[in-house]
What we know:
This protein is an alpha+beta fold. It has one domain. It has helices spanning 8-15, 21-70; strands at residues 84-86, 92-102, 105-114, 121-129. The termini are far apart. The mean pLDDT is 86.
Amino acid sequence: MIRTRVSRANLSSQRSDGLTLVEIALTIALLGMIMIGVMASLSTGFLAQRSNSDLLETQLLAREVLEEVQSTPYDSLLSFNGTSVTSGNGKCQASISAATAGTGLVRIAVASTCVANPSISSNLVTQIADLE
């Protein structure tokens, strides 16, 4: 019977040539935790960008409505009271309130909200005087 002898130096060099299952599992777990952190920050950034986009759109709609009201003759301003306007893409809605604020003065308030997220809103108020 012939026996082959393997020296300890030769045996230990064979073990260090590859990665063990434990090392691979730890590497995968570490990479997984890093990827979860990256994905969470991307998701948070996307939500913040969407929220800012919705806020910008509500402000734009409120300004457009207010400009339209301001271009109307003074005698017709009170007819806007209770009027609602929806943006072109349907994401925002604005409501207009008009009331007399004194002799020859009308107070116009425009409240614009995001339909998908009602907590996002913009309010604009102005007073228009009768100059005639």
